[in-house]
Amino acid sequence: MATPKLQVAELDPVWSRIRLEGEAAVSGEPLLGGLVHSSVLHHPTFERALAYRIAMKLSSPEMSGQILREIVDEALADEPGIAQAARADIVAINDRDPACNTFLQPMLYFKGFQAVQAYRVAHHLWTQGRRDMAYFFQMRVSEVFGVDIHPAARIGKGIMIDHAHSIVIGETAVVGDNVSMLHSVTLGGTGKTDGDRHPKIGDGVLIGAGAHVLGNIRIGHCSRIAAGSVVLHDVPPCKTVAGVPAKIVGEAGCAQPAMAMDHRVPGE
């Protein structure tokens, strides 16, 4: 007797959970049936669903959803790491955001997640020399989500951008793995100097709301940047900085601040 073949969803726990949550969402709110079916349940794989969702969010009279979907499908096929990073982002959001109760929520509703995945496609296009198309994706992400990430920037996996309003990440910025940031964060330059001019954010860093990290500086692994701070100089690993300009005010407070999401500075 032949061994039965496993369904793809059974080998992909993130996708399997999203589908189960989608079925539950339709059962609980039938009026969302069209959205959930078209965005999730209609698709055989996570990659196909992700491509559809990105294309539908970025489509406009200037570029149809069908054309965008073909571009995203091709990018996901050429670079499987894009979808793997997206899975890691969903898990990270669900772990760190108390307002996130399902894996389905980032896929359907969270613009921080959606903007980062569209950026990942734009970055792929950039590395393939398709610079104008990458700029088009950047423009649409900025218009639709209020998130402006240059396609040349390099961003790791396990990223959570909570609320994600008015995020700016410059051309030569680098963001490590398992980073959490809140709304209105800027990773920018300090003037019109060309070349490598944007921050390098280490793994596990927590960046508070409204923080501005400026210039070609390094933020050490597992450090914390307090809300509203302006960081102009390197930050050692596992420290907390706060103020304008930011200064070291203590230790990071835990081994993984981006996962703990504790924004209180020492002494509070």
UniProtKB/TrEMBL annotation:
GO terms for cellular component: cytoplasm. Pfam families: Hexapep (PF00132), SATase_N (PF06426). It catalyses: L-serine + acetyl-CoA = O-acetyl-L-serine + CoA. Keywords: Acyltransferase, Amino-acid biosynthesis, Repeat, Transferase. One of its GO terms (biological process) is cysteine biosynthetic process from serine. It is an enzyme of class 2 (transferase). Its EC number is 2.3.1.30. Pathway: Amino-acid biosynthesis; L-cysteine biosynthesis; L-cysteine from L-serine: step 1/2. SMART domains: SATase_N (SM00971). GO terms for molecular function: serine O-acetyltransferase activity. Residues 14-118 form the Serine acetyltransferase N-terminal domain. SUPFAM superfamilies: Trimeric LpxA-like enzymes. Belongs to the transferase hexapeptide repeat family. NCBIfam families: cysE, EPS_EpsC. This is Serine acetyltransferase. It comes from Rubellimicrobium roseum. The lineage of its organism: Bacteria, Pseudomonadati, Pseudomonadota, Alphaproteobacteria, Rhodobacterales.
